Amino acid sequence: MLSASHVLRVQRVAVSRGKRALHDLVTLPDRKPIISYGTPGYSAVSGHVVTVFGCTGFLGRYLVSKLARMGTQVIVPYREEDEKRHLKPMGDLGQIISMEWDIRNEEQITECLRHSDIVYNLVGREYETKNFKYSDVHVNGAERIAKIAAQAGVPRLVHVSHLNASTSSTSHFYRTKAEGEERVRDAFPAATIVRPGQMYGCEDKFLNNMASWPIWWKLNHGETKTRPVHVMDVAQALTNLMTIPQFPGTISLPGPRTLTTEYLLDMVSSLTYTPPSSAPVLPKSIALALAKVAQAPWWPLISPDEVERRYIDDVDVPGDWEAVGVTPDEIENHAITYLRRYRSAENFVRPVVFPARSS
């Protein structure tokens, strides 16, 4: 039998673990209370139900991981069964709920978001296919998700665009991103528009592509200015938005510094212990012609619009990192983690010497 003192200690522990505080309560615009409970972490319950469209993409996996680690129930819409398998272990039992969807199917979109108190739209395409053009995804798809979210009474919508989104851009990718923002605002006026810069990370198409195909990054003689940002910083910023009841407007999330492509290529070369690429600088006309020919295979290769983007500098706008409670990190602090695998066994002991920094 348990002694009276032991029972009292057990009761005290139970009460202390179940203790509530003011910060555990969040009231959404529709007066719906969100109450979190449990010890912080993987097995807690944040009280939020979140839908992440585009969860199987580069940014999506990190956002789902951060949300699930807080005890959030995450709806992960997927198109192909194998694409979402890695998301299941990110949350506790029953916290990661996968649902099949199609961006053109309004009924499926409704089912994916009707129980959520915040919806993230991370859907995007870096190249066009015969089934999905830029406008199908960035404009019509974004508008459809925003319209259905408004009709379903979802309190929060976070739409991820791009730092260089502009209706006057020479890139069709950037133009459709800007048009998609306008359609989202019309359908969901209180939406939060997030504009991150070029993201880098483990599975990126930025540093990895520079290490594999530097010839395509030497376009414009490496003078194109970019503001790369760590994908983990962007994911954390999106996660922090969940705790803010309302945040209408646009949030720009560029990297902390402006770097030239030439500097980045030199950095990749120094970290991978490979000599600088001796490939010639292709004229823009030839690069565009080769990119058009590269559309013949069924697998994705560089597209003409990607070539066009190699000549566009990132916009010089201040970052809104303080608003989301994140301090972006320098690319030099993380590049070695993602580029080490490209080193050669013949010269692995060569010391790393970074090139001179750009402005």
What does this protein look like?
The protein is an alpha/beta fold and 359 residues long. 34% of the residues lie in helices and 14% in strands. It has twelve helices and 13 strands. The strands form four sheets. Strands 5-4-3-6-7-8-12 form a seven-stranded parallel β-sheet, sandwiched between helices. Strands 1-2 form a two-stranded antiparallel sheet. Strands 9-11 form a two-stranded parallel ribbon. The radius of gyration is 23 Å and the shape is globular. The model is unreliable at 4-23 (pLDDT under 50).
Characteristics:
seven-stranded parallel beta sheet, alpha/beta, 359 residues, two-stranded antiparallel sheet
Brief write-up:
Keywords: Ubiquinone. The protein is 34% helix and 14% strand.
Percent of residues in β-strands: 5-15%
Strand order of the largest sheet: 5-4-3-6-7-8-12
**Largest pleated sheet:** 7 strands, parallel
Order of helices and strands: HEEEHEEHEHEHEEHEEHEEHHHHH
Low-confidence stretches: 4-23
Estimate the global geometry from the Cα principal axes: globular
Radius of gyration: 23 Å
Number of strands: 13
The averaged pLDDT comes out at 88
Percentage of residues in helical conformation:
25-40%
The first-to-last residue Cα distance is 73 Å
Number of helices: 12
Class derived from helix and strand content? alpha/beta
